[in-house]
Design brief:
Strand order of the largest sheet of chain B: 3-2-5-6
Structural class of chain A: alpha+beta
Shape of chain B: elongated
Oligomer: heterodimer
Helix content of chain B: 40-55%
Strand order of the largest sheet of chain A: 5-2-1-12-13
Helix content of chain A: 25-40%
Structural class of chain B: alpha+beta
Distance between the termini of chain B: 75 Å
Largest interface: A-B, 41 and 41 residues
Strand content of chain B: 25-35%
Radius of gyration of chain B: 23 Å
Number of helices of chain B: 3
Distance between the termini of chain A: 87 Å
Largest sheet of chain B: 4 strands, antiparallel
Largest sheet of chain A: 5 strands, antiparallel
Chain lengths: 358, 157
């Protein structure tokens, strides 16, 4: 019994130390999770606000035959983004705080259907002789594509390059896919996958190649901006990668007016774990309208609704259709769901008349 | 004499190992969970209110009840900030967010408040009563932890 107390004390002391260490590690893990989630929510709200600003500032000039050709105005986008980040961390909206937040943004990019705006580091000398590099938007840069003598997408990029370069052209995106603007004269020529006889002077181009070229342009612009910022501010340089070889499958291709933001881990975000950077983005989508119509079911006329693209075209042309913005408006107007069609997949791809790939 | 000291030390260690440590871990884990849940609730409230485009007294009361039901006593402040653009001395146009309205929980006369697109709704939470973990920590170490605070803001879309 006399030995019990000393032995217990010798054993208990390390146990207490281990418990304290365990508690510290647990606290750190919880704090990291909380701070990461908070930063993620902040960036989500900030990119949404910035995109809303870019799309609603001024006249976006929507035309119904090309719904994705909207004008995006980036004049106050960066300031709105920084303001929302400051508000979320309870920082005052002063120039110093906004410029501090900007230090952690290597690049932001607004992709429109005919070009993109990307941020660049503008060298500025202050009144006190301090040199700073605030972010500024560039002029709108067009998407360019290098056209080779053999542009078939059945062969590899190396084989294409070996066939020789025909020229570099600027390209656009619209509801139907990619289109090319011929350099020199301003004739717009439309190319799609299914009509390879239509080509650039007999050189067929597919819209998949156009979309790949657009993704590559954006990829390169972002990579350059990250390296430029890293070389000026001494930060970490890392590679940004949008897989262009998958882009023609619709994975990760930039196909609609979008806003992309990359942010490094800021010091005001506590223990948030971002590895190197986080990417946030928003893009324009076309609202799916609700179709309301009267159809005969079991001999009785019923007022029914379903979403656009759920109903086959041959049935649609025989009905008198009214458009509503949402199902609740349709319900208030006395329409009920059409269970024959409402479970079908809604085709949200560009354009109502998209021809499915063969 | 040494035996006596050992026995006292043993009892002290038993108390720390058996009482203080488990309570500390339990309080810490609870508080961390509560903080995360409060963050989620606040984010849900902001998403709901900015999506709807209006704030009703019911929304504020429900939100206040939800965040106070996780073990922390929090004071809620919901503000509406209006965006105004002004020219700065360099000739550039800057967006500025100006506080317009404050929605207090006790403001029973608040009607349904319509929000304009572009306005910002900001929620500020601050802990008014110290949690059990903080009080225990203070009792043992005489170190005060800062009170919990959270600010989130979202633009009305």
């Amino acid at each position: 019994m006399d030995m019990f107390s000393p032995i217990f004390n010798v054993v208990a002391l390390p146990m207490i130390i281990v418990t304290i260490l365990m508690s510290t590690v647990l606290c750190n893990a919880y704090d990291k999770d909380y701070d990461t989630e908070r930063l993620s929510i902040t960036l989500d709200y900030a990119t949404e606000a910035a995109f809303l600003d870019a799309t609603t500032n001024g006249d976006i000039d929507v035309s119904y035959d090309n719904l994705y050709a909207i004008k995006l105005n980036p004049t106050t986008t960066l300031k709105v983004l920084e303001s929302i980040i400051c508000l979320n961390y309870d920082m005052s909206l002063s120039e110093e705080n906004m410029s501090h937040v900007e230090d952690y943004i290597p690049v932001a990019l607004i992709a429109c259907n005919d070009g993109y705006y990307v941020t660049c580091n503008d060298k500025t000398e202050g009144d006190d002789g301090n040199i700073t590099y605030p972010l500024r938007w560039t002029l709108k840069k067009p998407y360019t594509i290098t056209v080779y003598n053999n542009n078939s997408d059945q062969i590899s990029q190396d084989e294409r390059e070996e066939s020789g370069i025909k020229g570099v052209y600027s390209c656009h995106l619209d509801d139907r896919g990619g289109i090319l603007l011929k350099a020199g004269d301003n004739t717009l020529t439309y190319f799609n996958d299914y009509n390879t006889d239509d080509g650039l002077d007999g050189y067929p181009i597919s819209d998949t190649l156009v979309r790949e070229a657009i993704s590559k342009n954006i990829n390169d612009a972002i990579t350059y901006a990250i390296e430029d910022k890293a070389s000026l501010t001494g930060g970490v340089s890392y590679k940004f990668y949008l897989p262009t070889e998958n882009a023609h499958n619709g994975i990760n291709s930039i196909m609609y007016p979008s806003f992309l933001l990359i942010m490094n881990k800021p010091d005001f975000a506590g223990k948030a774990d971002l590895r190197e950077a986080v990417l946030g983005g928003y893009r324009v989508t076309r609202r799916t309208k609700v179709l309301c119509y009267t159809r005969k079911i079991n001999g009785k006329d019923r007022k029914l609704y379903c979403y656009e693209t759920q109903m086959p075209e041959d049935v649609k042309t025989k009905l008198n259709i009214e458009f509503y913005n949402s199902v609740s408006e349709a319900a208030k107007a006395g329409y009920t769901p059409d269970y024959e069609y409402i479970f079908n997949k809604i085709n949200t791809e560009m354009g109502l008349d998209k021809i499915p790939h063969a | 004499m040494i035996d006596y000291i050992n026995k006292v030390l043993t009892i002290f260690m038993i108390f720390i190992l058996g009482v203080i440590c488990p309570i500390n871990i339990s309080y810490t884990v609870d508080r961390a969970n509560n903080k995360r849940v409060v963050l989620n609730e606040t984010s849900t409230f902001l998403d709901k209110v900015t999506d709807k485009g209006e704030i009703t007294q019911n929304d504020i009361d429900e939100f206040n009840m939800e965040i106070n039901s996780h073990g922390m006593i929090l004071h809620t402040e919901v503000d509406r900030l209006v965006r105004v653009d002004a020219e700065n001395p360099r000739g550039e146009v800057d967006p500025i967010y100006v506080p317009a309205d404050k929605f207090e929980v006790t403001n029973t006369a608040l009607p349904v408040y319509e929000l304009t697109k572009g306005d910002v709704v900001r929620v500020k939470l601050s802990e008014t009563v110290k949690s059990g973990a903080d009080r225990m920590f203070y009792a043992v170490t005489h170190v005060t932890n800062p009170a919990y605070e959270l600010t989130l803001a979202k633009v009305v879309s």
